[in-house]
Amino acid sequence: MTDAVTRRAAAVGLLLSGLGGAAQASVAARRVVSIGQCLDVVLTEVADRDQIAALSHFSRDPETSTIADLARTLPYTHESAEEVIALNPDLVIASRRSGLQTRTALKLMGVRVKEFGVPESVAASLKQVRDIAKLVGQPMRGEMVVARIERALAEAAPPPGHRPIKALVYEGKGLAAGHGTLVDEMMERCGFENVAGRYGLKKWGNVPLEMVLADPPEVLLAGEAFQGAPTWADRIIRHPALRRLEPNTFRAAFHQRLLYCGGPVLIQTAAALKKARQDTLAWQARRLSTIS
Question: Cα 136 from chain centroid?
């Protein structure tokens, strides 16, 4: 009899615990910590300022972040569990690329952690925006961000009948984006054909300078060198040999801060790719007029 009562009590406890967890999940988070640079951008767009307990320190780097100025006005962490717990958040949104030890420790401490992968398509990116907006109780803001992204994509789309321009993203150390990446889809949507595959690249990797020189694309969507003294990372995109391609290959600016993140960053990515397409077409027209 005692065992039966004990089992029944335990079952009731589990039921109430489950209901409590469901209720907690439905309540908008009021103190949110982001440990993921791309998630930082989404959070600043959909949450109230006083909901943001902290962003990641990566968000303050102007070379890799599109929100560096804003991020410097907000609290941040170096993504350690100790820092996050000290902020007493009721939600942590974490990139699956952030530290596994930190995420594990937070869960063991009972902190609510919602993990997100890196979206590899526009559709997945829009879903991520909506999901984060719902978590912070701002679904309409999420829809507004999605609408802005979709409008930017429509404005950046090439006209009907446009011939895709063969292009290669080329960043520091020769880093390039291959097929199946978010950047690849953005290139296609904005009028480019990603030719990374012809250099043997699948998703992400470095394309040797020699291969680019031997088989140049129509356009290099090239990164900008870091401010200040040249670094080892950007020595390839500064290499004087790339200038030899200029008679036949156009070099268009495509900053590395646009390379990794989706969400609101796609608005800037679309604008940059649209400008790159227009500048390329203008360059090609001038070149043809000179030849003729």
Answer: 20
